Amino acid sequence: MDQLKLAWVYRFWIVVGVVAVMPIVGYFIDTSSLAKSADAKARELEGIKTGLDAKLKGPFPNENWVNAVNEKKDLLDGQVGGAWIELYERQKPIKTFPKEVHDTFIQKGPKGDVDVATRLEYQKIFMNQYYDLIRSVDPVGLQGSKQLVILDADKVLLAKSPTWITAGFAPTVGEAWLAQEKIWILRAVMDVVRRANKDATSWNNAPVKRILTIDLFYGSEDKSARTKGANVKWDVPEEYMDPAIASTKDAQNKDSYRYLNKSKIYKPIPVRMLLHVDQRELARVLTEFGNSDIPMEVKEIEISQASEPPFTFKSKLAADKAKDKDAVEERGEALRVNDEFYNMTELVVHARAYLYAIPPKVEEQEKKAAAAKAAPAGTGAN
Fold this sequence. Notes:
By secondary structure, this protein is α+β, with helices and mostly antiparallel strands. Helix content is 51%, strand content 13%. It contains 13 helices and seven strands.
């Protein structure tokens, strides 16, 4: 009670002290709050400034800008479409079936209903296409050829023919299309050799002297597809398969992999070739990959010393060398180098062949032409 009386006596000075302290406390509270608010506002303004700076640099998306962009897009689409059609038409002559069954398979398509008789006919004549491929490069040992290239056809080509060739039943439509697609790539590959050797008159002056290996599809890819972290997606040929089969795990095994990063425009197919070539003609041989009707992009090459010359030529080379030695000793000259083997190089080429799908405009035109052809006589076309 005494303490309260004492406080009452000094109440004036107590109030003065409290009043004196309150502005100081309030100052610090207010300045802290203002500082936080100022920082937030500064960040907001800085963000607005950054946005305005970006806007000032353009582009300015007004109506004129949108129209100009659409015009450029249409122009680019037209250029892409034109190039697509050109490349498709360029390879169309090579993408054929044997003439006896060509029309039926093309009209019915990869999932069409082709009768058993036609599929059996295809099975019977399929291997003729391999023999045509062999003859196209004028291999050594084939009667009537120019004897340009050494080719073990059984090992390089025939051993990799479809298993249904010797089966007692016809291949399915999908199997026939898959086999024929492989023939198209092989035609392009063998045509690279044929073009490179077009001016040769014998094995001695042929740029490509030997075909040791031709590999396609999975396992033939270049290092850019095999490197860890490579952005590569393998695709199975679902367009040739029954949807029910294509969706199963069996269709996703590596033996079914054929295409790398497939798009709606083209299907890239890995190709690997092992050749013996004249090292002086390397540029010419590699150029022919790009000149192919089915364009092939060379992704990687390996060059090394060629193995021993083929057995069939060893005796001839030895005889030439002995004959040369006698001749040059008589003239007191240095022994010449046998150019045919001295310049032979082993070349491994990793390439990607691009099979182009039918462009929408061409597909529409072909459907109209087919419908007009199938229309009854005298009905006319609207």
